[in-house]
Amino acid sequence: MKRVAVVLAAGAATRFGSDKLSAPLGGEPLILHAIRAARAAPVARVIVVARPGLATGDWPGDPPVEVVRIASTALSDSLRAGIAAAGDAGAAFVFLGDMPLVPHTIAARLAARIGDRYAAMPRDDGRPGHPVLLSRRAFADIARLTGDEGAGRLLRQRDDVLFDECTNPLIHFDVDRPEDLGWLASRARSDE
């Protein structure tokens, strides 16, 4: 099955107070870490949905990285744009641009276990996290989302979502404030 990864990176970052996806983490902009995690997934290509002006870097090699620019900061608009760009893909991973340290091994586990389910996602301590793997069956539902909502409500309404149990809190941790970068930097050093 042909899968793609979608990295959502068009948000307004109002709680951060400035351009958080360009903020440095380990000497690189935050967004580059999220793209690297998406590229490590078992996918044919990576689609980065970004706001105008966000530097997403140059990514030679495989899987190829393409950028879709949108002016809207609404989460549903970003998700719809990424899924629309997925074309005929059989499934799509959804990564968040402000979740830079999602463990690279999780995506392969989700791909191996999803089967004919609607979606698959990791879960730690009873809480679902990212990345989320959406089957092609979810694409039409995603196309109908509106406002500042992602796929969470859709996934909570389904009984055919696979939860892959793990013990890594980084599947939950997104950067909201500048001080979050310090915690992530210390976590990244301790995981080396």
From TrEMBL:
Which Pfam families does this one have? NTP_transf_3 (PF12804)
Keywords from the named record: Magnesium, Transferase
User: What's the domain of life for this entry?
Assistant: Bacteria
Q: Does the keyword Nucleus apply?
A: no
List each copy of the MobA-like NTP transferase domain by range.
5-160
**Cited Gene3D superfamilies:** Spore Coat Polysaccharide Biosynthesis Protein SpsA, Chain A
Please verify whether the record's keywords include Transferase: yes
The UniProt GO MF terms for this protein read: transferase activity
The record's section on InterPro entries has: MobA-like_NTP_Trfase, Nucleotide-diphossugar_trans
Its protein name is NTP transferase domain-containing protein
Q: What is the organism field in this record?
A: Novosphingobium album
Q: What is the phylogenetic placement of the source species in the record? A: Bacteria, Pseudomonadati, Pseudomonadota, Alphaproteobacteria, Sphingomonadales
